[in-house]
Description:
Elements (H helix, E strand, L loop, with lengths): L1 H28 L24 H20 L5 H22 L12 H13 L5
Amino acid sequence: MAVLLLYVGICVVPAAIFWLLDRCYHAWTGVRPWPWSEPARDIEPSRPSSHLPLERLVADLHRLELEIARLERSDMPAKVHRLEAVTLAYDDTLRACCVILELPAPPARRLAGVDRLVVEAELAQAGLLW
C-alpha cells in the first residue's frame, strides 16, 4: 500500500497539479486551451481549384494518365497505394476541368471506372483533348 501511495505522490499528483494550473490559466485569460477543442467555423469545405489555367490542367491530365499507365506496368513496392493516389489526383483534375468548362462535375471524390469514362467523354465532347 505504501508503494501505491508513493507512486501516486510521485506521478499522479504533479500531473494533476499541472493540469489544474493549465485549466486555471486558460479560464483566466479566456484563451482556448487547444486549437482542436472547437472546430473552426470560418473554413470552407475544399472545392476543386479552378484558378489554374485550363492548359495547365490539360498538361496535368496528360502527365497523370502516363503515370497511371507506367504504374500499371511496374513492379514497384506499394503499387496499389501509388496507383490509388495517382488515380485520385487524376479524378480531382478531371473535376477541376469540369468546373472550368462549366460542365456538371461528378459528386464523388473517387470515381468508378465507368464514371471516369463518362466524365472523360463529356470533356472530349466539350473539345478538351489531352
